[in-house]
Amino acid sequence: MNFATARELLEYCDKEKKKISEAMFIRETEDLEQSPEETSAKMRRAYSIMKQAIERAQKEEIYGMGGMIGGESRLLNALRENGKNICGPLVSKAIAYAMGVLEVNASMGLIVAAPTAGSSGVIPGVLRALQEEMDFTDEQIIQALYTAAAVGYLITRNATTAGAEGGCQAEVGSASAMAAAAVVELMGGAPVQCLDAAVFALTNILGLVCDPVGGLVEIPCQNRNAMGASNALISAEIALSGIHSVTPLDEAITIMYNVGRSLPSALRETARGGMATSPSACEACKVKWKLPS
Amino acid sequence: MNDISIFDIIGPNMIGPSSSHTAGALRIAHLAGKLVRGKITRAVFTLYGSFAWTYHGHGTDRALVGGILGFGTDDERIRDSFALAKEAGIDFRFVENKTEKDVHPNTVDIHLETDTGYSVDLRGESIGGGNALIRRLNGIDVELTGAYPTLIIKHIDAKGVLAYITTMCSGIDLNIAFMKVYRESKGKNAYTIIETDSPINPSIISALECHESILAASIVPAI
């Protein structure tokens, strides 16, 4: 069993009465001939690394190599613990955790690129916060990671998840779409609702540019991971209410790809446009950086 | 790209901050480290393009040194690779080349020397998503990803060498996935690069090196 498009995936799920996570696992073990035990073990390891990264950012003082980020996750946790947060516990936790993973990443710590290092906070942030707030088991969360992987696979196969090719919408946008689909499956939504949530997440941030200050994965990447996490939860809630996307995921993916390719090169990870041109941010960057002419 | 795995999406597990500047750089250096014999004593890394401008902030430098120490992309010792390399007696340095324009933006040239007098020069490109491509090996243009278990054979471009190599491969029951030959010019030095689906039995090295036209053979495990 293999699928190249969201349409084929949905047809399979409908016909075989499978969840998206199950379809993705079957594709990996049957079509790609990977051992089921090894596949499960690898996914458990991935989630364990995600949780460890969140925990490290809560407990340790860590700083990015560029010196522009560090400690943000702890500040957000303190705000929530003091009852001063405005987002509600789920979103507050999701953004704090997502930003924490980016701190670990920027400090040369261990993370799971999901789908990329620059967007590695979104999925762990969303799923860990949901687990804590809704009492999901590790097994349930790990199962939902296959749903996230299915959406990421469709985007990788039919478009791109690279900021250099598609801008931030391809990195954080993809991570957000992957997380949204995973949340919908966890909350009992149907396969079509998972993919609708992915469409909402992807299209909400269509056109977002990739403009890292100093070329480093710190500013504005860390905040954008928080945005990607909250966008995933918003999109999941919209889909779970029964609101249906007129645009199917296959079209949304093509649209995202076309928008990405029409972005000027200065706004695709070259650090020559957008936030990367903020004189104050460049000043704050410890790494000597000169804008290429 | 029909065989994209779940763990190409939820993965790789890696030391941050950037798959192309950290994991990809490490893969290039890791491969270089596997090509030399003996203990590495000296390493020179020449960085081009984006690598030359941002290597320090991205930890590209520590990843390169971690690579020659044989670390994987998820090894937390990468952060401390400078101290570990000094302990191991490796003299390493970085050269920034910000003027050369005719290269991939994430390119590094690596020169390694060992205590046995062995040396290797290669050029690698970090092509995105933590993937690497070796473009030049000891002055010969090649294409090598390191994603598969790989057999790298340096030989003289002579009749019968390839037949001998493939016979040796079937002798250890090795299925060849991809095989390419690159040569300096007719009758001169050449490299045959064989990528396989399964790990390579080390016994093939001595068998290959018996042949008078084969100068050296190395196995590079997949990373």
How would you describe the overall organization of this protein?
- The complex is a heterodimer of chains A (293) and B (223).
- Chain A has helices at residues 6-16, 20-31, 36-59, 72-81, 89-106, 122-134, 138-158, 163-166, 168-186, 191-204, 221-240, 249-262, 279-284; one strand at residues 110-112.
- Chain A has 293 residues and is mainly α.
- The relative contact order of chain A is 0.14.
- Chain B is built from seven helices and eleven strands.
- Chain B starts with 5 loop residues before the first helix and ends with a strand.
- The mean pLDDT of chain B is 92.
- Chains A and B meet through helix 3, helix 5, strand 1 and helix 7 of A and helix 1, strand 1, helix 2 and helix 3 of B.
- Strand 1 (110-112) of chain A pairs antiparallel with strand 1 of chain B, so a sheet runs across the interface.
Could you list some keywords that capture this structure?
heterodimer; A: 293 residues; mainly alpha; 2-methylcitrate dehydratase PrpD; 63% helix; globular; B: 223 residues; alpha+beta; 60s Ribosomal Protein L30, Chain: A; Alpha-Beta Plaits; six-stranded mixed sheet; four-stranded antiparallel sheet; 27% helix
What's the short version?
The complex is a heterodimer of chains A (293) and B (223). Chain A is an all-alpha fold. In chain A, 63% of the residues lie in helices and 1% in strands.
End-to-end CA span of chain B: 19 Å
CATH topology of chain A: 2-methylcitrate dehydratase PrpD
Nearest-integer average pLDDT of chain B: 92
Largest sheet of chain A: none
Q: How many domains is the backbone of chain B divided into?
A: 2
How many domains in all of chain A? Answer: 1
- Strand tally of chain A: 1
| Shape type of chain A | globular
- Compute the separation of the termini of chain A in Å: 50 Å
Helix content of chain B: 25-40%
Oligomer: heterodimer
Strand order of the largest sheet of chain B: 3-2-4-5-6-7
How confident is the prediction overall: mean pLDDT of chain A? Answer: 95
The secondary-structure element order of chain A is HHHHHEHHHHHHHH
CATH architecture of the largest domain in chain B: 2-Layer Sandwich
Low-confidence runs of chain B (pLDDT<50, min 5 residues)?
none
| Discrete helix count of chain A | 13
What would the CATH topology of the largest domain in chain B be? 60s Ribosomal Protein L30, Chain: A
The CATH class of the largest domain in chain B is: Alpha Beta
